[in-house]
Design a protein that fits this description.
Number of domains: 2
Number of strands: 7
Helix content: 25-40%
Shape: globular
């Protein structure tokens, strides 16, 4: 969602919402459910659809049915996690205006991850070593980095943030190896075409991300 707020119509579509909770002793699932299932908001009401799933990294995955003025509207998936180092320093981004188009009012600004932390987590995600018998499917992070690089103005702070993310998550070292898995080639190329990016294929994409990381390191 933060990608859409930063990039608007150049962001890829997403089906889930990621939230960070800064209450160290609170139940992630219970806190989220209580927040959503209170009084309706602008005609929208929420109901949990299934039992929460606790993922291996401690993130809680929940699915909610959404109704609008009593009618079925959609289902949404939300991942809620404990806030990590640096995530409490938020960027306030302009919300997408809905009043004229839909008659729905809401906040003018929304709190999101700081840009540097957002980029650092993308680099970490696309280079995350897969677990035994699994594959890293985070090819979309490569595309996101191609789009986010143009927004970065302070690479010195970004380098420090990348180092902190790798140290905190303790899955692999910084700088990480930047490889292009074979199963990424076709979907990356497809997204390059869909977004009309000024590169030809996945190999060009990974080369551009390597150059971005080199600039962060230098």
């Amino acid at each position: 969602m933060a990608l859409e707020l930063r990039l608007r119509n150049r962001a890829r579509a997403t089906k889930d919402i990621d939230l960070a909770l800064f209450l160290p002793d609170a139940s992630l699932a219970l806190t989220l459910e209580r927040a959503l299932t209170g009084d309706p908001y602008q005609g929208f009401a929420f109901r949990r659809k299934r039992e929460p799933l606790v993922l291996e990294n401690g993130v809680v995955n929940m699915e909610f049915a959404v109704t609008y003025r009593g009618g079925i509207w959609a289902s949404i998936t939300i991942d809620v996690a404990r806030g990590e180092s640096g995530e409490s320093n938020i960027d306030w981004l302009p919300a997408i205006p809905l009043t004229d188009a839909f008659g729905v009012t809401g906040p003018e600004l929304l709190p999101c991850l700081p840009l540097g932390l957002h980029v650092a987590q993308k680099i970490h995600g696309m280079t995350l070593p897969p677990r035994a018998g699994k594959r890293n499917e985070r090819f979309r992070d490569l595309i996101d980095l191609l789009l986010l690089e143009a927004l970065v103005t302070d690479r010195r702070d970004l380098r420090i943030t990348c180092e902190v993310v790798c140290q905190t998550r303790n899955t692999h070292s910084w700088p990480p190896p930047l490889e292009l898995p074979d199963h990424w080639i076709e979907p990356v190329a497809r997204q390059i075409r869909e977004l009309n990016l000024p590169i030809t294929d996945a190999q060009a994409g990974i080369a551009q991300v390597r150059q971005f990381v080199d600039r962060i390191l230098s």
